[in-house]
Amino acid sequence: MTRGLIDALREPTGEPRFGAASFEGAVFEAVAWFNDARFTADARFDGATFARDARFHNAAFTGDACFDKATFTEHTDFLGASFTGDARFHMTTFAGHIRFDGATFAAKALFETAGLDDALPIADTVYAAHRDLRPELVEDDRAREITALNGLFGP
Questions:
Q1: I need a labelling partner for 66 at 20 to 30 A (CA). Which of 8, 46, 58, 78 fits?
Q2: How confident is the model over 2-37, as pLDDT tens digits?
Q3: Per-residue DSSP letters for the chain?
């Protein structure tokens, strides 16, 4: 159903486009397809449950992207996603495989108290502002070294 909704919102360029979007408390029982989606205002997924895969490959978030207390149970893909506003994952649960490779965070990237069953893969991820990632959450040694050199974790 999500895929059909996203297809209905596609621009002539082929990209689904949202203004302010609120999926707070939503339950996505099937695969959530947000690949190439453009969120041109705040996108709220607070308390949402993704029972299957969550696909945000190359999604663009212009406003804040809030995933506070969301639950991702299977594969979660933010490969190549761009976050212009704050990206919040406060108390978010990631139970399955997650990817943030190539994602860009221009403002705050907050993963405070995020429940991660595995390390957070962030190879080639670009941060332009405040990050809240703990070294033990970083899977890629190269990313960990770059992150530590840039003083992202503090002392």
A1: 8
A2: 544 444 444 445 677 888 899 999 999 999 999 999
A3: -HHHHHHHTB-TTS-BEESSEE-TT-EE-S-EE-TT-EE-S-EE-TT-EESS-EE-TT-EESS-EE-TT-EE-S-EE-TT-EESS-EE-TT-EE-S-EE-TT-EESS-EE-TT-EESS-B--TT-EE-S-EE--GGGB--HHHHHHHHHTTSS--
> What single DSSP character describes residue 136?
G
CA distances from 2 to 22, 61, 143 (A): 14, 18, 33
Task: Please name which of 154, 116, 119, 124 lies closest in space to residue 142, comparing C-alpha atoms.
Answer: 124
